[in-house]
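Technical annex, item 7. During the second reporting period the consortium partners agreed on a shared format for inverse folding records so that results from different sites could be compared directly. Each record opens with the tokenized structure and is followed by the designed sequence. A conforming record, contributed by the partner at site C, is shown below for reference.
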């Protein structure tokens, strides 16, 4: 059955109208400034965007209308008859992309014409988005595909599927959080918030909770500044292999900093100890510090840590927002 989507407008240029086309759609576009609902253009598509009718066909109108933006809202080139998908062009007749992936040479295991790593149902790849693969058994996170997009993703290879089939686990990770050279969460690691590409602290907190929910394990660590400063420079993440769904071992605040040039304890201040509470838990468990459990829970851990770091604050990262306790 053909879906009909009518776009109403009386103020916008025809080329600027939002397009909501879907496979097998009939698109009806109103006349610019029209108040009587006069239909200006009707397009019938084959499955990959080929037009069944003359794209310039108009009905009940003396004004010619030719919106270039057609199938799935992409621009149709009059010269080539192909759709512009940003990083690649689609030929609607065979239903194939005709443009090589710009980073095809880095991914020899994939076809140079592959779109979304052969997973267009779950993924959208307008310009290419960095995808990292996480191995829960080893804690290793490695870059699988890199591009120049604004955000990163974490995925895992699907079982019993062809090589390259990816299930995305975390989306829209701010650049600078994940290390293109790899990270291992079964050892203490860190995220650098400084420099041109440094992520925001809020984005790091969002990632920590998303990552914690993904592995179904609490994540803990520290916010670290340069000595005498209040701005967070590093967020450390303790070895998650020692953690459970209701307990996080943050590790030493310095373990993740030892490899920094000229490292010494005196160069840094420990500002905050944090850990996550999984989103799947009830509000009564998630939105308060625990007082029981290993070592007396969150309250017992805080009491012990404050004897060593009197000015350190304690933060729980959870939904709907982090809170200090």
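Designed sequence (site C submission):
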């Amino acid at each position: 059955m053909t879906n009909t989507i009518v776009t109403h407008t009386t103020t916008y240029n025809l080329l600027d109208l939002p397009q909501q086309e879907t496979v097998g759609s009939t698109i009806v576009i109103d006349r610019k400034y029209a108040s009587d609902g006069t239909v200006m253009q009707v397009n019938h598509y084959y499955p990959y965007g080929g037009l069944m009718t003359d794209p310039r066909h108009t009905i009940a109108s003396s004004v010619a209308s030719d919106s270039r933006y057609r199938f799935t809202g992409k621009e149709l080139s009059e010269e080539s008859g192909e759709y512009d998908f940003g990083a690649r062009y689609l030929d609607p007749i065979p239903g194939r992309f005709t443009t090589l992936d710009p980073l095809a040479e880095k991914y020899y295991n994939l076809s140079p014409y592959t779109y979304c790593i052969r997973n267009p149902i779950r993924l959208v790849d307008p310009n290419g988005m960095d995808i990292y693969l996480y191995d829960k058994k080893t804690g290793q996170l490695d870059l699988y595909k890199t591009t120049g997009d604004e955000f990163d993703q974490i995925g895992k290879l699907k079982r019993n599927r062809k090589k390259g089939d990816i299930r995305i686990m975390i989306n829209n990770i701010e650049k600078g959080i994940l290390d293109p050279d790899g990270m291992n969460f079964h050892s203490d690691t860190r995220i650098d918030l400084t420099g041109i590409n440094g992520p925001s602290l809020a984005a790091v907190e969002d990632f920590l909770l998303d990552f914690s929910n993904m592995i179904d394990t609490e994540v803990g660590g520290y916010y670290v500044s340069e000595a005498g400063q209040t701005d967070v420079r590093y967020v450390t993440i303790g070895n998650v292999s020692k953690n459970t769904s209701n307990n996080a071992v943050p590790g030493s605040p310095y373990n993740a900093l030892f490899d920094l040039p000229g490292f010494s304890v005196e160069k840094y201040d420990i500002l905050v100890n944090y850990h996550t509470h999984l989103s799947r838990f009830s509000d009564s468990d998630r939105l308060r510090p625990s007082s029981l459990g290993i070592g007396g829970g969150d309250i017992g851990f805080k009491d012990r840590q404050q004897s060593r770091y009197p000015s350190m604050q304690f933060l729980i990262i959870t939904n709907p927002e982090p809170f200090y306790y």
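Residues 104-174 form one domain. The radius of gyration is 26 Å. All partners now use this format for quarterly exchanges.
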